[in-house]
Amino acid sequence: MEFIWLFFIGLIANVLGTIAGGGGLISLPAMLLMGIPVHSAIGANKVSNTISSLSSFIVIYKYKEVTVKEALIVMPLCLGGGITGGLIASLLTESTMIVIAVVLLSFALLSSFLGSSEFDGNRPLVINKKSGFSLFGIGFYDGVFGPGSGTLMMYVLSHLGISYIRAVGLARIAIFSSCFGASITYIATGKIMWAVTMALLLGSVSGAQIGVHLARKLKKEYVKPLLRIVTIALLIQIVVTNL
């Protein structure tokens, strides 16, 4: 029965995560409530998100809505961030990461109201120092903790003038990269419970496929309100569970 629950947790989390980020809002707290150790829960999320994110990127790439060239720009930054985050995860306390999460999500929420971008641009992806640091930083945060990283990635891509479906594709390859980097460290340190991870993985891949097809049909004017709702829910969940 536990593995069935994990399958559906992975499915629901990745439908939400693909559309607007925030899948960790569902998966990580649910796994902790099931009594799964925190490092094993995070590690299971990293491994399952590695595969599910890649699978959803491939679907978007198949429809020629994002290019390999753009993916190769994003991947090294997020991979480096994910590896770095995974390596030093044990050095940062949980309370420190909670503070970082709240600050980043609050800033993203505020900037979404101040910014003019509504995923209506179609600019080529150009990385400068500011955006490069942002992508590396989100990859680092994803490697250490995770919930909200996909949502933060969507905000960054929105401000770069990337259209919604391209942003979904690039966010997925970014999450693939950071989770792949983090997964290496969690596997190497023996934190992975493989039966738990595989059950979550099967649900995650299924949810990612559903999510990417829904994303292709979602009207752009609904995206920012949805991102704001997910961000507020993440903030409430993080603060309430750690009071």
From TrEMBL:
Major subcellular site: membrane
Keyword annotations of the record: Cell membrane, Membrane, Transmembrane, Transmembrane helix
InterPro entries noted in UniProt: TM_pro_TauE-like, TSUP/Inactive_protease-like
Protein's membrane topology: Multi-pass membrane protein
Spans traversing the lipid bilayer: 6-32, 73-92, 97-115, 135-157, 169-188, 194-215
Secretion signal, residue range per the UniProt entry: none
Compartments it resides in: Cell membrane; Membrane
Family: Belongs to the 4-toluene sulfonate uptake permease (TSUP) (TC 2.A.102) family.
Name of the protein in question: Probable membrane transporter protein
Species: Paenisporosarcina macmurdoensis
